[in-house]
Amino acid sequence: MKKHILKRMLSLTLALVMIAGLTGCASLEGQYDNANKLLINGEYSEAAEAFASLGGFQDASQMTRYCRALAAAESGDYDTAVRTFASMEQFKDCYLLAPYYSARQQEALGVSETDPAKWYEAEGWVHCSEAVALYSGLPMFLDSDPRPAGCLELMYSNAQALADAGDYQAAAAVMTALGDYSDAENRAVYYTACLYEQNCDYPSAYSAFTGLDGFMDSPSRAKAVLATVYHTADTDKSAGKYDTAYQQFTWLAETAGDYSHENGAPAEQAKECARLQGEAMLAKETPDYAAAREWFVLCGDYAPVDNPSAADHILQSWYLEGESLLGADEPDFAAARAAFTNAGEYAPAGGASPAECILRCWYLEGESLMNADEPDYAAARDAFTNAGEYQDAATRFSELCYLKGVEYSFGENPNYYAAILAFINAGDYEDSVSQRKSCQSSLLQVASVGDHVFFGNYEQDNNTENGQEPIEWLVLDKQGDRLLVISRYALDCQQYHNKWVYTTWANCTLRKWLNRTFLNTAFSEKEQEHIPTVTVNVLRNPEFGTHPGNKSQDTIFLLNIQEVQLYFPETEARVCQPTAYAAAQGAWHHKNGACWWWLRSPGYIPNRAAFIHYGGFNYIGLDVTYENAAVRPALWIDLNP
Predict the structure, then answer these.
(1) Which long-range contacts (CB under 8 A, 24 or more apart) does 221-225 make?
(2) CA dist 637 → 351, 417, 563, 567 (Å)
């Protein structure tokens, strides 16, 4: 009985619980519906509170955030609204509401300033542009379709206001942002053209105005630009700004060739400016001759009345440049001659012709070369020769050489070597020959090992018409009053022997030639008195041991291998160049001038003779009949025979 009663009570309790539950669910759904009604009626704050009271019922918590975001947007708090909708992108229409209220936010910022200048400075046009772009991405959503019109109209009207105020840069920027709205594209170009004109960029302004194909007053504005350019160029020309005036007139001529003006056509004006600029370059304190010629070239065939032609101006500039180069502290004679050559036949009134000026260049260069611390006699002689009949050019070189010789040979520390070179180049001017011989004797008396002296004469420059030249010798040794010397240059070209047979120094034909032909050709009887006959020792070839033959008694001889090793220990010191005469006789020489020269030592067999090859020893030797080896004579000079 008790079990039955408990069972009935439990059933009753469960039924009451179920009834209470059903009643509670019906109550929450009603509250949810009421909250939705508030949302639909736009009572977003109230709806948010209603949904919040539902706790975790269905999507009440999300609806709470949704309604609060709408309430924030309604109050103008777009930042909160956009952030919330963006975070709820998957809920309801949040993916549309986020960009919509971003657009509303940009629109609000874009219309917040009424003054056009301040509106532009605050980037109101940027905000409006952004709003329009966002609305365009939300077709048919809420009021996205009609809302851009207000932004576009505001941008257009403010752009016009900015242009009216002269701020063409801002106006052009806003019109560009408007894109294809109304005539914004053309206005953007128009205002840009006005900006170019305002900034004096007339070529760009003209190009922009003419590209508008008659839009607004662009044709008249384009003509006004041409007039402004002409006036500006004319003003610059009057102010001496010929280069800028030239550029402007040239642009006018190229852009509007038929443009006419009472002061002259642009093309003629440009040439006149080029002429004036060229003359200005010549009139500078430091004339720019090259620039002047460039300007004169631009003149073409333009030649105003009573003024030189452009071609004459160019010749004049070359002439003036030549005079400038010649009159500089450090004259550039070669460049001056080139300038005078380019001057053609131009000559200023009462002035020398370019041809005469070229001769003067050579003359002055000759004097400059002679006045150097170490005169370049060869170059100076050529310079005076090239000076032709200018003044005393024919004798001036000899005179200057003579004066140099006198200068070097006298004083506390006479330089006899330099004096001899000077007197040699002076030729037979006055007493140059006797002065030279006196200096040669003095130099021999004071010479030491390593010095250069002069003794005897031999053909060297291969010009037999001017006679023999003094022989220059290198002092190798000094013993008492005797000097052992070897010619500085290879003086001739001879075979070692005239037959290809075993031979030695003692019986070779080269020894006979040196002690007969060369001795009598190079030295006077008085000079031969100072050349003693000496015993010439013989030594074997140090590499092959070849027998050298017998000793000999000679006045003139060649060095052997051992003597060259002693007196010329360095390879470079053994390098020798042939005279012009020796080279003409067949002496072979390298492109650097070095020749092969005989030694008296035998080669590796008796029908070969050792020689110096590019400064190095060749112990094997050349065939004794070889015809292209040079001769460097050696001898002893007795200062007091």
Answers:
(1) 221/193, 221/194, 221/197, 225/197
(2) 59, 17, 17, 17
Cα separation, 342 vs 144, whole angstroms: 80
Which amino acid belongs to residue 184? A
Q: Is the CB of residue 240 less than 8 Å from the CB of residue 256?
A: no
Question: From the CA atom positions of the chain, what is the Rg in Å?
Answer: 55
270 and 246 Cβ atoms separated by less than 8 Å: yes
Q: What is the DSSP string of 79-146?
A: HHHHHHHHHTTTSTTHHHHHHHHHHHHHHHHHTS--SHHHHHHTTHHHHHHHHHHHHHTSTTSTTTTT
Q: Please give the DSSP secondary-structure letter assigned to residue 300.
A: T
CB contact at 8 A, 454 and 472: yes
pLDDT in tens, 84-130: 999 999 999 999 999 999 999 999 999 999 999 999 999 999 999 99
Contact 207, 157 (CB under 8 A): no
Q: Which of 518, 489, 452 is CA-nearest to residue 593?
A: 489
Predicted confidence (pLDDT) per residue in 184-242, tens digit: 999 999 999 999 999 999 999 999 999 999 999 999 999 999 999 999 999 999 999 99
492 beta partners:
631
Look at residues 445, 448, 466 and name the one whose alpha carbon lies nearest to residue 457: 466
Task: For residues 393 and 387, give the distance between their C-alpha atoms in angstroms, rounded to a whole number.
Answer: 6
Q: How far apart are CA 474 and CA 454, in angstroms?
A: 9
100, 250, 313 from 307: Cα distances, Å: 78, 22, 9
Tokens of 379: 């170059």
Is pLDDT of 145 > 80? yes
- Which of the 8 DSSP states describes residue 391? T
Cα angle value 491/494/496 (rounded, 5°): 125
Instruction: Kindly tell me if the per-residue pLDDT of 3 is higher than 50.
Output: no
How far is it, in rounded angstroms, from Cα 536 to Cα 532?
A: 12
Calpha distance 84→52 (Å, rounded): 16
Please, are residues 554 and 536 in contact by the beta-carbon 8 Å criterion?
yes
37 close to 67: Cβ distance less than 8 angstroms: no
Residue type for position 109? L
Determine the Cα–Cα distance for residues 513 and 505; give it in Å rounded to an integer.
12
Two structure tokens written together for 11: 């059933």
